[in-house]
Amino acid sequence: MKPIKVGLLGMGTVGSGTFNVLKRNQEEIQRRAGRGIEITMVADLDVARAQALVGEGVQVVGDARAVIANPEIDIVIELIGGYGIAKALVMEAIAAGKHVVTANKALLAVHGTEIFAAAQAKGVMVAFEAAVAGGIPIIKALREGLTANSIQWVAGIINGTTNFILSEMRDKGLDFGVVLKEAQRLGYAEADPTFDIEGVDAAHKVTLMSAIAFGIPVQFDKAYVEGITKLGAADIKYAEQLGYRIKLLGITKRTAQGIELRVHPSLVPTQRLIANVEGAMNAVMVQGDAVGTTLYYGKGAGSEPTASAVIADLVDITRLHTADPLNRVPHLAFQPGAMSNLAVLPMAEVVTSYYLRLRVADQAGVLAKLTGLLADAGISIDAVLQREADQVSQAGENQTDVIILTHDTREGTLNEVLAQMQALPTVMAPIVRIRKEELN
Amino acid sequence: MKPIKVGLLGMGTVGSGTFNVLKRNQEEIQRRAGRGIEITMVADLDVARAQALVGEGVQVVGDARAVIANPEIDIVIELIGGYGIAKALVMEAIAAGKHVVTANKALLAVHGTEIFAAAQAKGVMVAFEAAVAGGIPIIKALREGLTANSIQWVAGIINGTTNFILSEMRDKGLDFGVVLKEAQRLGYAEADPTFDIEGVDAAHKVTLMSAIAFGIPVQFDKAYVEGITKLGAADIKYAEQLGYRIKLLGITKRTAQGIELRVHPSLVPTQRLIANVEGAMNAVMVQGDAVGTTLYYGKGAGSEPTASAVIADLVDITRLHTADPLNRVPHLAFQPGAMSNLAVLPMAEVVTSYYLRLRVADQAGVLAKLTGLLADAGISIDAVLQREADQVSQAGENQTDVIILTHDTREGTLNEVLAQMQALPTVMAPIVRIRKEELN
């Protein structure tokens, strides 16, 4: 059988990794796929640089549309990124009857519904294993490996930059700003790290996992997104003393009321494997009703790990593109006509547990007042850590930290209590609130 | 489209789990698969008991051949186990043109080559996700998710019974025999635990993973198999002091000389995630040249976790059975005509590192003699731990433990040195040798 021909848009880090891995392992990949897979055309704005990377045998053009227009190309890999030109090119490739492989989580999390519908109508596949957790085959696990299960929740460390920063903060007892600068110096954080540190990148990824896990449309606009920029070394230390580590988790959960979809720093029990995922590594936990808890771990970014996922998609398409579309794996795991209409819950309706740190005047009755407010709202306390008085304020008053771990409660209820606590004259600083996930 | 019809052979723990999960989640599974999947016929020697489990709507027979002979059945699930009648039934089901799903690792590790060839010739699939690591979709990850990679090695905790025993030995400082009895009482070990504790079950599983990872035939007879029955609490404690845990690992590795295929207790650095997999849980690490190190974790046994894998295979077959056989995923990941002829290495040719514990007379020059023998053979030492003299022998002589960690060496070379050491008059007891894997 003659090789399947692939056009590659964007010869950046992942693009060159994909080209190199496919070339290095071409014999082994062909022995698996039963057919050769060749990148025969590449589009990049810097034609000369791209040509130098791929060598003379491959046609390099500056105009991505020339790749899409090439009738010999069966599959288009989109590695440009972003919502702009990338979206137009993906839609045009679909319209031209090409299968598409993309690592573009932002594009799919925001415009996935439109893109998947167009692909479905045209009878082509849009594959996106590389969009979530790099080389870890988590999309395949969720969409095929765990297909017997009613999935209960998914929780993952799905942004390497923030996990690197949190690992360093804990290891070295440093604050966020210092570690961010180090991460930028080492190449773990970009010059503009906003999408990573504010949780947006993780929210793109968990939005895609949520859709696949529960059969709902991609709804990035409904995700709750909170980053790690406000985390201090003190909270990481207190959490450690209480038996927890702080990780930025993307979480999606099925409840009787609807779907939870949220990204925020979370306390996780130290004995969980995921609490021990350090540096820039990623890990995703999936809880299914039959299988129980499973975990998938690996590199979540980088040239060749991401290329590993891109090429796995190429092989899948090579295998399935001659098959009846009805026999393919649906884009969002569920058949297009059988999606769920479960709504994404507003954050106030989410039920979870909390770590609270309050800077209080070291006076008799303060703790009783605080715990009384929680009790009045029906919120149970799991643990309290009260520090010795450690600082004398300008008014000559002793201050101390009180840490409270709550049991599960509705976030809206907790917000009301936090407002009451904050208004107390004995509460001397903004209350720190970090969510806590037991993940069992 | 009318439902695909499934016949189930063997209504034991996994059989009833499969029936129950398929029934409980039938609506959700159909929404994914695009087609209903129904177990319409069950064979079990205890017809009355099986009928009570499945209810009146399902036909229950005592003769498995009646299921295979039923022209309405598309897929046969074999959950009988063992090499005997199970093999005959699987071969007959294939001959009858049925697709087969099995959890029978023993059968496939020993007779896989014959079975897969028959299936290939007949154009049917034999799916076996449930045969390795229960509900963890490791077969799918190796065969599809990591298909871009030249896989370097696979190492896994793939037997829950032995991992439970090792976890308890470490936790409670108890010896093997005591913990085995406890495991049997709790249902983690069978009345005859030989296959588990002697490493045979793990060897069946790693044999299958080896074939898939490297495209070689299944060759259980070439596997090196060593169980955990000789492990003592002392070695677990010493390993801990040196920064290691002892796990029973199934390991397969590609080297320039050939394929390593082995099961034995192994020291693993405590900071590796896999060293922290406790109790009856399973985990498999896979190292690929592009993706780097990945890990897959979950329940490796039990009714519903194993059912999760059986049903995932049912869905895969439901999707692919109308497709051209050339477009399906090959049984052993590589196309039947493109398998490798890399040989499995004898254990003497394996290169790894070692933990040695020697009971020696507490005399001057003993350590120099031991390390001299290693140096003469070109074996480097990584660490030495010498204990205070702790016991006076009957001859009135002080004895002590010397622990030596070596760097990588050929096992055949080490064996020669061990024979020399054992012959020394100052070595007072059989030398304990445990292999050590850095897994990085």
Automatic annotation (TrEMBL), chains A, B:
Entry-linked CDD domains: ACT_HSDH-Hom
Domain ACT, first and last residues per copy: 355-436
Active-site residues, Swiss-Prot/TrEMBL: K205 (proton donor)
Listed EC numbers: 1.1.1.3
Keyword terms, alphabetized: Amino-acid biosynthesis, Methionine biosynthesis, NADP, Oxidoreductase, Threonine biosynthesis
Database matches in InterPro entries: ACT-like_dom_sf (IPR045865), ACT_dom (IPR002912), Asp/hSer_DH_NAD-bd (IPR005106), HDH (IPR016204), HDH_cat (IPR001342), HDH_CS (IPR019811), NAD(P)-bd_dom_sf (IPR036291)
Molecular function terms, GO-annotated: homoserine dehydrogenase activity; NADP binding
Sites where the protein binds NADP(+): L9, G10, M11, G12, T13, V14, G15, S16
Binding site for NADPH: K105
Binding sites annotated in the UniProt record for L-homoserine: E190
Record-level GO BP terms: methionine biosynthetic process; threonine biosynthetic process
Name of a matching Pfam family: ACT
Pathway per the UniProt entry: Amino-acid biosynthesis; L-methionine biosynthesis via de novo pathway; L-homoserine from L-aspartate: step 3/3; Amino-acid biosynthesis; L-threonine biosynthesis; L-threonine from L-aspartate: step 3/5
Keyword set includes Transferase: no
Keyword field contains NADP: yes
Similarity section: Belongs to the homoserine dehydrogenase family.
Protein name, UniProt field: Homoserine dehydrogenase
Species the sequence originates in: Limnohabitans planktonicus II-D5
Lineage summary: Bacteria, Pseudomonadati, Pseudomonadota, Betaproteobacteria, Burkholderiales
